[in-house]
Protein: CNH domain-containing protein
Amino acid sequence: MSHHDDHSGKDHQFGSSESLFRKFCNKMRGKKQQGFSCQFEQVDTLEKESLVPYSMAISYRYNCLIVGNRNFNYPSVDIFDLASKTHIRSCRVHVTPYYMKIEKINHEEEYLICVHYSNITKYKLHDIVTQDDSTWLWNKELSYISSVAIDYHPTDSLKNVILTCKDSNIAQVSSLNGEELPLITINNLTFSSELYCLELLPNRNIVLFHNETFHILQPQTDGTWSAVSQFGYRLAF
Structure:
């Protein structure tokens, strides 16, 4: 079996699990609902209306939770201790990070990519978690974008590419300098409205959400992409 066939088989198997998911949902609806314990432990207090969380990332290198915050006074990234969940600091950033992704270099967490609906901004992760103010490495203005994923180059980290939904397309931006690259070309599928929830799977396939349906895209040898499977509410292209 070829490498391509192996990926396709995995994706079709992933898509076929929808029926099992529906059975699970029906079973859960039929079970007696049981509330959870209302015994909570207060671990920290923030000033009133100081935290409006929009996104979150976890850094195991720095053992912290990273929360994108639309602060009423200024946008920030707030840092919480991973074990105790106590608030450590707020780091002022350029714009509210609605989506965030940590970029690894040689398996080490090095950078934080923040996506606002009109900006992609790259920071040094160390600066974000240790300082109260930040200076970006680069900032790219790009309208009508959402979600963020990193397409890692197999041999050269300088060629890593940031993927984001741009209206009804998938945009590519160089992680090195923020240069906008050509939109992704999809051979057998055209999207008629806005895309959401883009993510890159371990096998480098893209999964995204459009019009109440999840689609899986597979990279081709010529640099284009093809839709190979789908799952969700609507099941026809």
